[in-house]
Each structure stands twice: as structure tokens, then as C-alpha cells.
Amino acid sequence: VPTMGSLHKGHEELIKRARLMCKTVAVSIFVNPTQFAPNEDLNSYPRNFVNDRNLCIDNGADILFYPPIEEIYPDNFSTTVKVNKLTEVLEGKSRPSHFEGVTTIVAKLFMMIMPDFAFFGKKDAQQLIVIQKMTDDLNMPISIIPVETVRKPNGRSEEHTSELQSH
Fold first, then answer.
1. Residues with Cβ < 8 Å from 70, sequence gap 6 or more?
2. 161 falls in which pLDDT band (50, 70, 90)?
3. What gap in Å lies between CA 87 and CA 106, rounded to an integer?
4. What is the pTM of this model?
5. Please, which of 15, 26, 87, 104 could form a disulfide with 59 given CB 3.0 to 4.6 Å?
6. Catalytic position from the list 11, 98, 160, 167
7. Sign of torsion, CA 109 113 115 118?
8. Is 11 one of the catalytic residues?
9. Could you give the CA distance from residue 116 to residue 46 in angstroms, rounded to a whole number?
């Protein structure tokens, strides 16, 4: 279950779904600087590792992968993953570098963790489609599992209002 942290009920649902399908459940928390544009404030992205860790434990995660930025993007890092066409419309049109950051970090996490399944919320439909296309195009032996969006009683999605992007 790849995330950027600041976990909420939507993430709980991803972890619970993974728990039902998988022998071992790993959750990654990494606030990815490459999916933030220069006008977006990476430093103000909410971070609460203690709450995130507790939510993971309470919902059945076996492994919490919380790598330092230097492990993900060493000084000499120069490779990115880009899915053309699908990332040039909708959110990608207003945030042109966003999806290249998403696909690069997800590909790196997949190579580091080597999961059989990865769980993504349907709320971020474009992201889900882009990740599915990337794994198909690159013949990654990973099944992408879409998970229904968790809604509050008022019909709003279960997320923090300060989030720039769901996980």
C-alpha cells in the first residue's frame, strides 16, 4: 500500500483490503518531492508518523517502509518514469510534472518492495489508470487492486482537506 502518509480512513480501507488478500502487508510512507510543482508547498504537506504508524498497526500492516529521502533520491539520481498521453490531460494538464513524480516513486517502491499486489483508491481515478498503464507497459509482475473510495456520511471522500493529492 503506497502512501504519502497523513493516513485516514481511506488508507485504512486499503490496508484492510490488502490484509484480506495478502499473507504479508507492507505500507510505504514517503512524502515524494518529485510530485510537487515549484508553486506547491512540499514543506506544508501534513506529516504525523506516530499516528500513521498506529493506524498501520491497528489495521493489520506487517511492514512499515519509511525510507529517508536520500535512499530514494541519492545525489546522482537522474532516471524518471513517464506515462505519455494519459498524464497530459485532467490533473496532468494543470500539474505537468506531477504524474512523472508519481510513476517514478511508485516504480521505485515496487522495485524495492517487490509486491505481488498494490492497492490504490478509486477516488484518484487518473492516478489509478496511470499506474495500471505503467505496470502493464513495463511488464511489472504486480496486480494493481482498485479499492472503493471511503465516504463520510455527508458523501465527501475521507481525506484531509490540506492534502494536495491522495495516495
1. none
2. very low
3. 15
4. 0.89
5. 15
6. 11
7. negative
8. yes
9. 29
Contact between residue 113 and residue 46 where contact means Cβ atoms under 8 Å apart:
no
- Sequence-separated (6 or more) residues with CB below 8 Å from residue 109: 2, 28, 30, 65
DSSP string over 7-67: --HHHHHHHHHHHHH-SS-EEEE---GGGS-TTS-GGGS---HHHHHHHHHHTT-SEEE--
Task: Determine the Cα–Cα distance for residues 141 and 128; give it in Å rounded to an integer.
Answer: 16
- Which region, left, alpha or beta, applies to residue 111 given φ > 0 means left and ψ of -120 to 50 means alpha? alpha
**Model confidence over 42-94: pLDDT tens digits?**
999 999 999 999 999 999 999 999 999 999 999 999 999 999 999 999 999 99
User: Is the distance from CB of 119 to CB of 112 less than 8 angstroms?
Assistant: no
